[in-house]
Design brief:
Layout lengths: L1 H21 L7 H18 L3 E3 L8 H23 L5 H21 L3 E3 L5 H24 L5
Antiparallel strand pairs: 1-2
Helix pairs in contact: 1-3, 2-3, 2-5, 3-4, 3-5, 4-5
């Protein structure tokens, strides 16, 4: 559990503090939405038995909460920052973040921090990241159109 807390929560939030100094609006807009998406989808997947995070704590919510509020939230914040505040090719941002997060999940499978049920697979994980980042991109676009960003 200490590994998940340090790698999935503490380290991402170190970069998140830096990002907050660059673009604090992200933490009041898209970051909470990203956290909500992560908590809802991870808890649904865990409770439906589609995947399991190891080690499994006695309090089921804690198995993914540090990841949901850590790496997933901060990845969404950096994604928004790259889309809105930087002049980076939009397609490239999507490819890098979707591939990066899917790759990290693949690594978690390899080191057995994560285990899939027989009905879930790596392709479904990829599709979840595609959907999640498309949704965050859409929200970011709306906020930019409403002149919330930058």
């Amino acid at each position: 559990m200490a590994f998940i807390i340090i790698v999935g929560f503490v380290i991402p939030w170190i970069t998140g503090i830096y990002l907050y100094k660059l673009a604090p609006k992200i933490f009041y807009t898209t970051a909470p939405i990203t956290a909500l998406i992560a908590v809802v989808l991870n808890q649904a997947g865990i409770h439906m038995g589609l995947w399991e995070v190891h080690p499994m704590p006695a309090i089921v919510l804690l198995d993914s909460l540090f990841l949901d509020l850590g790496i997933f939230t901060i990845a969404g914040a950096w994604f928004t920052y790259m889309l809105v505040y930087k002049s980076v090719n939009t397609l490239l941002v999507y490819i890098l973040f979707i591939a990066g997060m899917t790759g990290l999940e693949g690594l978690a499978l390899l080191v057995e921090t994560l285990e899939y049920d027989d009905t879930w697979n790596f392709f479904y994980t990829f599709l979840m990241y595609v959907g999640g980042f498309l949704f965050i991109g859409w929200i970011s676009h709306l906020l930019k159109k409403l002149k919330v960003f930058p």
